[in-house]
């Protein structure tokens, strides 16, 4: 229903969509968005905008905002519920003042929902990335290969991981590999070369340098200290 409404009303929607305002929405710039709406309300009052036109604008905004948030939401049920409640509220309004008050509520609701949705989706993706890393820790790690699995770009996933985890994905992979190496050094008699090969390091020198950088000990020193 939301997609259908937007598609059928696209020309009317574009006729009053302010490009700068659209950019504020893309960046979830809350204060600027709300100030822009309040300034627009003054112009609507001065021009004596009719109630029917204002209702039409809000109905389209409701559909547009809901559609955009659905793209970044894990749980679509709550978004559709908000959309339906707002749609009914728009129809129930009888004055321009009521519709303008409702408009502030509409944008407040969707902006906060958008911010929460983006955070939840980001955490959801990063959690799956972490699972992927642990499942494939004894394989050669490639961000490009993982990006194909997640149907996303390597740069996006790398940036997302760093923002959520405060560590680059490559450094995180090395930390996980070293933790696995510590376990193997402690519980098996595998040689440094065997462990290095098992964890897909290009050579023992690279493995040893990475191990020492993270733990402060070389693999041999670590094993001897147990």
Automatic annotation (TrEMBL):
SMART domains: HTH_ARAC. It comes from the Bacteria. GO terms for molecular function: DNA-binding transcription factor activity; sequence-specific DNA binding. It holds the Pfam family HTH_18. Residues 127-225 form the HTH araC/xylS-type domain. Keywords: DNA-binding, Transcription, Transcription regulation. This is HTH araC/xylS-type domain-containing protein.
